[in-house]
Amino acid sequence: MDYNALNDRITAAGATLVAVSKTHPEAAVRKLYEQGQRDFGENRVKEAEQKAAALPADIRWHFIGHLQTNKVKYLAPFIHLIHAVDSERLLEEIDKQAASNDRTIDVLLQVKIAREDSKYGLSPADLRTLAADYLAADYRHARVVGLMGMGTFTQDEAVTRAEFERLQKIFEELRSGPFAGRPEFRELSAGMSGDFLIALEHGSTLVRIGSLLFGEREYRK
Ligand SMILES: *Cc1c(COP(=O)(O)O)cnc(C)c1O
Q1: CA separation, residue 90 to residues 59, 73, 165, 171, 189 (Å)
Q2: What 8-state DSSP symbol labels residue 69?
Q3: Ligand 1 site, residue 43, Cβ cutoff 6 A
Q4: In angstroms, what is the span from residue 189 Cα to ligand 1's centroid?
Q5: What are the pLDDT digits (tens) for 8-67?
Q6: Would you say the CB of residue 149 lies under 6 angstroms from ligand 1?
Q7: Spatial separation of the C-alpha atoms in residues 13 and 11, rounded to whole Å
Q8: Does the C-beta of 193 come closer than 6 Å to ligand 1?
Q9: With contact defined as beta carbons under 8 Å apart, do 208 and 39 qualify?
């Protein structure tokens, strides 16, 4: 799909396009960069590090994959937003590594909304517990700025719609409840190539789009 048309559509809805460049070469990133794109998403630590080192410094790198605690240190110097935090251990490590880099790292808590048995993400109950622990812990360098969710991979729009509706509701409950008074809690990362239009109808502020922009990947994760 044409980059400008896609970006205009997402921007008009008040959201930001995160171009998911995983598996695609630096040249593909550069091409979109030259058209004005600044937010890019990766899901492998090594690939993110290599691209960040080689590409312009004003790119905002988003880590959208599952992140192992022992790899946080490699991302900490440069990452803009970590989308998929699903444990207190990971949050603690991000806080620690952000502190040693003398910076604040923004993160999203990942909620499991899909029907399919996905390994990652918090149940709504575990999310509330982690949110409460985070607020009580008063971290200085890891900052929770919202939620992230992945819908079921399906053609059935009703399923997707119900999932994003639920995610939005959980988000609004936290925002007006425990996170009231934390204006930074305002990001909802939802929607991919196949379902971003539905996500935009349900309050998404960050859509993560890969194949629609770059074509199919060599491998999927
Ligand atoms: C790969 C990936 C995307 C992009 O998927 P497309 O269907 O190619 O748009 C979005 N979010 C996450 C978490 C991903 O791993």
Answers
A1: 24, 11, 27, 21, 19
A2: G
A3: yes
A4: 11
A5: 999 999 999 999 999 999 999 999 999 999 999 999 999 999 999 999 999 999 999 999
A6: no
A7: 5
A8: yes
A9: no
